[in-house]
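EI: anyone free to look at a 484-residue chain?
SC: sure, send it
EI:
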Amino acid sequence: MHRLLTWRESVLSRIRSFEYSQKNAVLVPVAALGVGGMLVCWLRSRHKIKTLEMGDGWWGSGERLLKGREDESIRPFKIQTSDKEIEDLHRRLDQARYTPHVEGAAFHYGFNSSYLKKVVSYWRNQFDWRKQVEVLNKYPHFHTTIEGIDIHFIHVKPSYVPHGQVVKPLLMVHGWPGSFYEFYKIIPLLTEPAKHGLNEGDVVFEVICPSIPGYGFSEAPHQQGFDSIAAARIFHKLMNRLGFKKYYLQGGDWGSRITTDMAQMLPQSVRGLHLNLVFISNQGLGRLISTMLGAYVPWLVGLSKEDARRIYPFMQKNVYDVLRESGYLHIQATKPDTAGCGLNDSPVGLAAYILEKFSTWTDKSFLNKDDGGLESKYSLDELLTNVMIYWVTSSIVSSMRFYKENFSKDPFQAARNRIGVHVPTGIAAFPQEIIHIPRIWAKDVYKNIITYSYMPRGGHFAAFEEPKLLAQDIMQFVRKVEQL
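SC: here you go
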C-alpha cells in the first residue's frame, strides 16, 4: 500500500511538472515576443524623425470666418504706378534735409551723407520708375489668399524643355531688407541654363519666389504672432496649391530660417534644401571647447584651414563685428513701429537705412569707402528698385515687425532647436557673409549635408551679387541629390 501511494505521488508530481513546463513553453516565448516588441518600438521611436508642428493660422483683419471656404484662386497681378505716386516721391526727395557727416567717417557711422546726396540726385533726376516697373513685370506675378491675407509671388517656368527632361520646382525665399527682386538675375540661369553657359542640360527649374507676408506686395498680417513658422506653413500651402507634392527650397537671411522651418515641418515634401546662410543656436560647452582649441589646432576639432581663416580672431569676427552690424536687429526686435514710422514717411531715410545694409553686408571692408562700395557690386537702378518696392507698398514697418514676432519669445527655447533637419541639404558659404558656420557646426542641426561649398567671393545678398556662382552651386547640389 505504501509503495502504491509513493508511486501515485510520483506520477502526479511528474504530471504537474509536465504541465508547468508546458505552460512555460507557451509563456516564455510570449513574454520574449512582448519584450522584443517593446524594444523594437522603443528603438523605432528613437529613430523616428521629429517634425515641427504645422498648426494653422489666421492673419486677416478681424475674426476668422467660420462659414465658407477661403478663396483658393490664383489671380494674375501686375505692378502699376501713377503720376501721383511719382510726383509725391519727387516732392519728398526735393524737401530732404541732410546732416553733414564727420570728416573721414566713410561708412563707419552709417550711410555717408555726401554720398547719400548723390544717390538722391540720381533718384530724383535719372532713375526711371516706370521703366523699372516694366522690368519687374517681365516675370508673371500672382496673388492668392492664404490664412486670410493675400500672398504675392512670381512663378517662372522654362520657355523650352528638352524631350525627357524633368523640370524641378524650386521655391526661393528672400530676407530683409531684400525682396523677390533679388532673384531676377538668377532666375534665367536656373530656368534656361543652356542659354547662359550652364548647359550640362540635366538640371532645369521652374522658380517660385514669394514675398514674405508684410514685405512688398504680400499683405501684412493683421494679427500678432506672425513668425517664420507661420511663413513656412503658408509657403507649404502655396506650393501645394500650385500642385507640387515635392520640391526644392533655397534661402538666405530670413529665407534660410523659413525654408529650414519648412524642412522641419514637412520633410516628406522637401526634396532638398539649399542655403547660403545657416542659423544655429547650440552654444554649449562642446562648442566653447571647439572654438578655443580651433584657434590653435583646428584639425583636432574638425575645422578646415579655410574655416579657421574665416572664424578667427574669434572675438573680432564673431562678437565685435556682429555687434556693430546688428544694432538694427535690437530696434526691430523690440519697438519696430517707432523707428519704422519715420522710414515710412521719408524716402531718403528709407534709402539710407536699407542701402547701408547692401554696403557692409556685401563686403565688410566697404565700411572704409566714402561711397560704401555700393556701385562696385550693384547699379543704382538695381538698388533703388529694391528700395522702391518697400516705398510704394509702405511695407517697411510690417517687414521690421517680422523681427519682433520671431524674437518675442526666447529663440533658444524654441521647439525647432530640438528638431534636426534630415532632408538633403546643401550649404554655400560665402566669404563676406556676416558670420561663418563651419560644416562641423552646421551638422548639429543639418544631419544630411550633401554639399558644403566654400564660395570664392560674395557676401550676404548672394543671388543679387553673385547669381552665377549661386546658380552653379544649387545645380551641383541638386545633381547629387537626384543621384541618391
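EI: The CA atoms of residues 23 and 100 lie 96 Å apart.
SC: 👍
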